[in-house]
Amino acid sequence: MKNKFFSASIIIIFIFIFFIFYKGLENSNIYTPKTNVKKNVPFFEAKLFDSSNKIKSEDIFNKNNFYLFNVWASWCIPCKDEHPFLMKLSENKNIELIGLNYKDSILNAKNFLKKYNNPYKTIIQDIDGTIGIEWGAYGVPETFIINNDKIIKRIIGPINETSFLEIKEIIK
Amino acid sequence: MFSLIGYYSLVFGLLFSFLIVLLSIKNFRDKNILNDKIISLTFFQLFFVIMSFLGLIASFINSDFSNETVFNHSHTTKPLFYKISGTWGNHEGSLLLWLLVLTLFIFIFLLRSKDQTKQYRILTLLFQQIIIIGFFIFIIKTSNPFNYIFPVPKEGLGLNPILQDPALAIHPPILYLGYVGSSIIFSSTLAATSLGYISREWAKHIKKWVLVSWIFLTFGILLGSIWAYYELGWGGFWFWDPVENVSLMPWLALTTLFHCILVLEKRLILTSWVIILSISTFALSMCGTFLVRSGILNSVHTFANDPERGLFILIFLFCLIFLALFIFFFFHRVQNKDTNSFFWLSKETSILINNWFMMYFLSVVLIGTVYPIFLEVLSSEKISVGPPFYNKLIIPFLIPFLFAMAIGPKLKWIKSNLENKLFLIIFFIISLFLSISITRNLNSSFLINTVLIASAFYLFLITLRDFVINKFKNLSQTIAHFGFSLLILSILLNNIFSTEIITNLKIGETFRSEKFNINFEKIEQQNKQNFRSITGKFNIKNSNGTSEVLNPELRIYNQPNIVTSEADIKMNMFTDKFMTMNLVQNQEHFNIRYQVKPFMIWIWISVMLISFGGIITFFKKKYEK
User: Fold this and answer.
1) Who among B322, B373, B556 is closest to A24 (CB)?
2) Which of A163, B78, B325, B466 has the most beta carbons within 10 angstroms of its beta carbon?
């Protein structure tokens, strides 16, 4: 009797563990932030890069157009690798490139753009990194594709051949 | 082409599984001897799995990007060695490796168990085939390594650069040999339980398999730990990360199992312990695969997340657990009760005590690893369990554990008296003095550190004395226990006396402190095959006049674009000087982390000693008293 009770309780415990693990599987994928996709563009106010004027987010993303919001910095080595892709995209009429110069010195950033050319239509400054936080950026570089005030795609890390083709597909 | 061969070999291998099962059931019923055809079929199955594995390796070597696995994990510029190691560096390939080892081990088992009864061999084979079939279906259905992509991409996506490292290239296969070796123990235990064959002969026979898995598991963990030490750049060797814990848990279970088997071989007691531990070792290994592969855990090691895969392993794992529990509850009967008595002062009692300690450590690690999952499911609250939890719960219990380990082997089987009491007491006093002389300058937690170091010294001295007195008698056990005391000692001293400096330096700048000055002299840049390397040159002047040059390195990989930091470690017998450098936001500065870590090398040496003890036991003909 005692033995049966023991066996039954062991089996119940294991069934319980199974159930927990099964439920646990549903909320896995901790590392792919799906929630940020299709989210509205966060509101912010920031300094423009080449003047001391301030600009609001609704002044930037005001058209029913595609925007590419790119977090970059001159100290970021992978940014140099994605730069050619940005240059190619800047020739495309369907998309407007916005750069967020993240925790950078203006002088270094200007040299960077002089050396590699400027793909951005507008550049805003984020000296203390707060705008990056607003956007939920993971690091530099990071890219958001925006349409109709919604973030429709984000690329963590540098743009490569694959993501470049994906972007072209989206804005076609 | 190679993918095709690989895929069809895999399907053939599965077909052979069914053939083996059919033939085994037939053979189990009618004949007295094991049909030789079964062994040949097992060989063919192994052959096809090897073909499949070679097919995948060949696809990796040729950079055949029409294969999805190769496309996702390889790149043409990658060195050949890492192309090959990339085969098992990913989910699909690593499962194929699991399967390879599963089939390899059952084949070896059949060859090496000729002196056992037919029924037992066939049942073991059948249980093993259940596992093998499960893995075949898992691989073919959810993680086929030979998926075809069209159009064929020009270039692959590359292997995670922190995995491009010699220690890590061989770490998974060795760890898997340990994990999968426990599958043989599992099948064999189930077979022996259902036949009522848990006996001394069986213990003697299965002991070798326990040892093999244990040795590989120990080496596997050691390699992983060494890799973490020099590659992750945090200067630690064990982080209580869930994935590390997952490899530690089977190790704890296996170590306990090994000691139980020794008792079983001598006295035919602790049979339930042996059965439960055999089942849990394998269940924990499978559970590890589940936790790592399903993405249920929040860990730096998590690679591919796919809930469907997780679900399959989960159901499979629990089927096996329920099968095992069923066999244990219905077939296992404790025989002759009178041999189950223990005299309080005997070898088996001390082994039993240590078993309970090991089970306690195992539960701590288990709870720390899975509790966050339970909590999240039940209350959707996220927590992460870190080193303080483990340290607080494990460290105090190490003290009695070490004492039992020192005194236990001195005792005889069944009943004994403590001999050489004087020695034991003198040694204790000596170790206490040694310990106090080390810890006397400590400000915090003086008492616990003193007692802990004293108990480690105690085991250290006593095993050292055993070397002198016993010469080669019980050499393997003495070496393993000596290694363990050394391990605890070096970990403790390392923890207490490590110093760390984290600072930002520009080229030409010097960091000054009481003990040393660090001068950042220059950096050098070089282009390597698939990464660009930035090496810093640092000159360290110690206050005692000696100086060193350390060259930490940054590697900027091109595919995928990731920066990794390679530590430079100056190792000698007493201290490690450890330095890493990292980029910081302001381009001119580098973040420097400099650590002086005493007795680091002894941690590795002691783990090697422990496994060396196992190796000696493995090659020894006869078990000594």
Assistant:
1) B373
2) B78
The two beta strands, B575-583 and A54-56, are unpaired
A–B CB contacts, 8 A cutoff, strictly below:
77
Say if the Cβ atoms of B307 and A30 lie within 8 Å: no
Specify whether the CB–CB gap between B538 and B551 falls below 8 A: yes
Distance (Å, rounded) from C-alpha B21 to C-alpha B30?
15
| Probe site for chain A from B297, B377, B531 (most A CB atoms < 10 A) | B377
Q: Give how many domains chain A has, as a whole number.
A: 2
Parallel/antiparallel/unpaired status of strands A142-147 and A150-156:
antiparallel
pLDDT at B305 over 70: no
- Statement: the pTM of the whole predicted model exceeds 0.90: no
CB B257 within 8 A of CB B278: yes
Q: Is residue B443 part of a domain?
A: no
| Chain B residues within an 8 Å CB radius of A28 | 294-296, 305, 307, 310
Query: Could you give the number of structural domains in chain B?
Result: 2
Closest Cα in chain B, distance from residue A1 (Å): 13
The verdict on A15 and A98 lying in the same domain is no
- When the pLDDT of each residue in chain B is averaged and rounded to a whole number, the result is 85
Of B294, B380, B583, the CB nearest to A28: B294
A141 belongs to a structural domain: yes
Task: Give pLDDT tens digits for B568-614.
Answer: 888 888 888 888 888 765 567 788 888 888 888 899 999 999 999 99
Q: What is the ipTM of this complex?
A: 0.74
Q: Assess whether pLDDT exceeds 80 at residue B303.
A: no
Question: Inter-chain contact A25–B314, Cβ cutoff 8 Å?
Answer: yes
For residue A21, what are the domain limits?
1-30
Residue of chain A nearest B302, judged by CA positions: A31
Sign, Cα dihedral of A62, A68, A74, A75: positive
Does residue B543 fall inside a structural domain? Answer: yes
Specify the length of chain A in residues.
Answer: 172
Q: Write the CB contacts of A13 (distance below 8 Å, at least 6 apart in sequence).
A: none
A157 and B298 in contact by Cβ < 8 A? no
The residue range of the domain holding B516 is: 499-601
- The reply to whether residue B561 touches residue A78, judged by beta carbons under 8 angstroms, is yes
Q: What average pLDDT does range B535-541 have in this prediction?
A: 88
In tens, the pLDDT along B218-246 reads 999 999 888 888 776 666 788 888 888 88
**Whether residue B412 has pLDDT greater than 90:** no
